[in-house]
Amino acid sequence: MKVLLATQKPFAAKAVSGIREIVEAAGHELVLFEKYADQSELVAAVSDAEALIIRSDKVTAEVIAAAPKLKIVVRAGAGYDNVDLAAASAAGVVVMNTPGQNSNAVAELAIAMMIFMCRNQFTPVTGTEIEGRTIGIQAFGNVGRLVGAKAKALGLKVKAIDPFLTPEKIAEGGAEPVSELKELYQSCDFVSVHIPATPQTVGSIGYELITSMPKGAVLVNTARKEVIDEAGLEKALEDRPDLKYVTDVMPDNYATLQEKFGLRVFATPKKMGAQTAEANVNAGLAAARQIVAFFATGERKFQVNK
Ligand code: 3PG
């Protein structure tokens, strides 16, 4: 089988060689397609692919239609909002993710971003410390739980909300459960966002929630830019000069935010949460193993388009 590793943002070399080893040991062929500049190149590259490993690469209906031999797409990572699941299902293509494999990298970045903003982006402006303050974790999944544990170790009080977990489960994970989102925002000096982009969550964090945060609060988004109502964020930062926003997913209005709010906003130039050697190896190798198992036995444990 031909496995195409299509990554606009390439994996570390160690991850690529590990993926190759797993794929070739199972008798399949690995073809590398990295750092492509345009979506049309991806559409052209998939023509004879039977399996696809991707990151945030966009597997649209056009990509699926251009890949008549495609049987499986594995998103090496957690969020799969970049894959047209309906188009994949209609074409009989199985879609999987690799949950948990890059979570630690993202959680470490969320903590780092929080400190970075408290220290005014490492400029000589006097900052604040995080110890003794309260962090709210919005969605207590793989990343959220790790952020909570790390924050606790740094002396923060941890609260969390998750529509899919009981208060008991959240407490077992080491956080104080909160039942209303507004309550989380009102009572936390930091809110770290870990929700996926879905029709229910897109644009769901806006002016009202952000301005309900206490004085000097920082909103940290290592999830998806789409979950923020960007106009609402801009207005909130305007009306509340004490608030800060830091993100690993650049907002569309970032230039305006930078111009208006300077050190109170920061976005990484490219999504870097999962960009560690460890996360690349964990997620990349898991993806390769899932493809090999799928072709060998039909294993579909991590299928997301059931
Ligand atoms: C994920 O959903 O796993 C993260 O957003 C990582 O995305 P990336 O593989 O494009 O860095």
Detail the topology: elements first, then pairings:
Blueprint: E1 2-7, H1 13-25, E2 29-34, H2 39-45, E3 51-54, H3 61-65, E4 72-75, H4 85-90, E5 94-97, H5 103-118, E6 134-138, H6 142-153, E7 157-161, H7 167-172, E8 176-177, H8 181-187, E9 190-193, H9 207-211, E10 218-221, H10 230-239, E11 244-247, H11 254-261, E12 265-267, H12 277-297
Parallel strand pairs: 1-2, 1-3, 3-4, 4-5, 6-7, 6-9, 7-8, 9-10, 10-11, 11-12
Helix pairs in contact: 1-12, 5-6
The structure holds 3-phosphoglyceric acid.
Any descriptors?
306 residues, alpha/beta, Rossmann fold, 2 domains, five-stranded parallel β-sheet, 12 helices, elongated
Structure write-up:
By secondary structure, this protein is of the alpha/beta class. It folds into two domains: 123 residues, 3-Layer(aba) Sandwich (Rossmann fold), CATH 3.40.50; 165 residues, Rossmann fold (3-Layer(aba) Sandwich). The protein is built from twelve helices and twelve strands. The protein has a seven-stranded parallel beta sheet, sandwiched between helices. Strands 2-1-3-4-5 form a five-stranded parallel beta sheet. Strand 9, helix 9 and strand 10 form a beta-alpha-beta unit. Helix 1 runs parallel beside helix 12 and helix 5 crosses helix 6. The radius of gyration is 20 Å and the shape is elongated. Bound molecules: 3-phosphoglyceric acid. 3-phosphoglyceric acid binds next to loops.
